[in-house]
Design a protein that fits this description.
It is a single chain. By secondary structure, this protein is of the alpha/beta class. The protein has a single domain, classed as P-loop containing nucleotide triphosphate hydrolases (Rossmann fold). 50% of the residues lie in helices and 13% in strands. Strand 2, helix 2 and strand 3 (59-62) form a beta-alpha-beta unit.
Length: 171
């Protein structure tokens, strides 16, 4: 049971993870990396390791490199490290719930200024947001379970969706 919190820097992913931790009365494994993978082997290891977690254990992941590398890689490094096609990404996400954290751009920019950013992120932030918007729209159109969350509004609906996803996944 994989719940992926995804979105550009400053979009509220970590704050939402903390709200889920506080408000969802379930045993949940939380994952957060300390940055992007340094090479494709690390990326493959993460994907393989996630596939070995029993499906009945809910996992909340603050960014998944299958998605974030698809967005950030071409913009920051000139290429996507994993080289997965959109169809392969969709197959990987078929059993996941993706929460796309996407407030207004002004709220995103304010949130991004609160944290130290990886080189190139602040300079390319608008392009990163546009790439996320495009990818999330395509994934949603192709049947991936995408839920939108704006941290400037109430979190009740997304918290209820997470609870329901976990309960259904345990049945």
């Amino acid at each position: 049971m994989l719940i992926i919190l995804e979105g550009a820097d400053g979009s509220g992913k970590t704050s939402l993870a903390n709200r889920i931790r506080k408000d969802v009365d379930e045993y949940i494994l939380f994952l957060r990396s300390n940055g992007p993978p340094h090479h494709v082997g690390q990326l493959a290891d993460v994907i393989g390791w996630l596939g070995e977690i029993p499906r009945k254990i809910p996992v909340v992941q603050d960014r998944n490199p299958v998605i974030s590398e698809y967005v950030y890689g071409p913009i920051i490094r000139g290429k996507c490290m994993h080289g997965l096609t959109l169809e392969q990404i969709i197959r990987y996400l078929r059993q996941a719930m993706v929460v796309y954290c996407r407030p207004s751009y002004s709220a995103l920019a304010a949130g991004m200024r609160q944290d130290v950013q990886m080189e190139g992120v602040a300079l390319n932030h608008q392009e990163i947001v546009r790439a996320y918007d495009k990818l999330m729209g395509e994934l949603e159109e192709l049947g991936v379970d995408i839920r939108r969350y704006d941290f400037t509004g109430p979190a009740d609906l997304i918290l209820d969706a997470v609870k329901t996803y976990i309960i259904r996944g345990r049945q």
